């Protein structure tokens, strides 16, 4: 073919396809305590999206809710016990090492700078968290540093009245999960996962009522809860 007939995406005015990069999942949470809902969500996303790893990042001082019943160190210890033995899962304690509120934007910016373009970040969250995202600190900047991957969760839906959230989703929604490793511009992907109606709130409540969260949390986490008598008087389990 004559050289003047070589059309590239550049000559046609389109953005060149980006090189595929490994994907790192960022799983932030209060984890008070961590439970099988969190672990299954991370595992299913790791498998379906081909994540190279998932970083569990306990929120030290959550900006948007009451201070947790347990210390940040205890919550991080429970995460460490829960993820031990899974080579894909890592504990990241950066929010425990920072002062002030644990804003996700600061965490993503820090991770993004450390990666130096060698991997892409995927911020993982359930639909309930995404439903409130327009109240997060500097939320409009989150996509500068990471894709946002939202999972289904029993009882959680997009609020029908939030036009700002609707517009955010419509503008940035990716059409295919295959775009995550190659899409230069970050976007939003919604992934259906196995519905597990487990929440830390219900676990704390059941312990307060003297019931065991056995089979809702890993055994090692339950042992830790009992040893430290967390969530009031659980040592008999
Ligand atoms: N069962 C679940 N299914 C899907 N996503 C979940 C589930 N449990 C938690 N998540 C998601 O995990 C992240 C961290 O959640 P968090 O630590 O607040 O747990 P939680 O069970 O929602 O706690 P709490 O009841 O105290 O609010 C959030 O993005 C949340 O949406
Ligand atoms: O940065 C914010 O303003 C912000 C506001 C609300 C929630 N987050 C983060 O979202 C994650 C899930 O929050 P939660 O309450 O569901 O545990 C956790 O990492 C929080 O720090 C972050």
UniProtKB/TrEMBL annotation:
EC number of the protein: 2.7.7.18
Keyword vocabulary terms for this entry: ATP-binding, NAD, Nucleotide-binding, Nucleotidyltransferase, Pyridine nucleotide biosynthesis, Transferase
Reaction catalysis annotation: nicotinate beta-D-ribonucleotide + ATP + H(+) = deamido-NAD(+) + diphosphate
Keyword Secreted applies: no
InterPro entries: Cyt_trans-like, NadD/NMNAT, Rossmann-like_a/b/a_fold
Pfam families: CTP_transf_like (PF01467)
Domain of life of the native organism: Bacteria
Family, per entry: Belongs to the NadD family.
Function in brief: Catalyzes the reversible adenylation of nicotinate mononucleotide (NaMN) to nicotinic acid adenine dinucleotide (NaAD).
Name of the protein in its database record: Probable nicotinate-nucleotide adenylyltransferase
Organism whose genome encodes this protein: Methylobacillus flagellatus (strain ATCC 51484 / DSM 6875 / VKM B-1610 / KT)
């Amino acid at each position: 073919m004559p050289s003047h007939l070589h059309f590239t995406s550049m000559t046609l005015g389109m953005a060149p396809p980006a090189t595929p990069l490994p994907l790192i999942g960022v799983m932030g949470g209060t984890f008070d305590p961590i439970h099988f809902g969190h672990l299954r969500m991370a595992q299913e996303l790791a498998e379906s999206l081909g994540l190279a790893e998932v970083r569990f990042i306990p929120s030290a001082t959550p900006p948007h809710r009451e201070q947790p019943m347990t210390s940040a160190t205890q919550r991080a210890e429970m995460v460490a016990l829960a993820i031990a033995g899974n080579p894909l899962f890592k504990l990241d304690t950066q929010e425990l090492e920072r002062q002030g509120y644990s804003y996700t934007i600061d965490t993503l910016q820090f991770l993004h700078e450390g990666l130096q373009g060698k991997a892409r970040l995927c911020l993982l969250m359930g639909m309930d968290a995404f439903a409130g995202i327009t109240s997060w600190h500097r939320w409009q900047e989150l996509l500068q540093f990471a894709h946002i991957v939202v999972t289904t969760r029993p009882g959680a839906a997009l609020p029908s009245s939030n036009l700002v959230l609707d517009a955010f989703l419509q503008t940035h929604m990716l059409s295919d999960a295959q775009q995550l490793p190659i899409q230069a511009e970050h976007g939003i992907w919604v992934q259906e996962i196995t519905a597990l109606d487990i929440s830390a709130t219900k676990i704390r409540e059941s312990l307060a009522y003297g019931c065991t969260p056995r089979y809702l949390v890993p055994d090692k986490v339950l042992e830790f809860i009992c040893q430290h008598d967390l969530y009031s008087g659980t040592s008999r389990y």
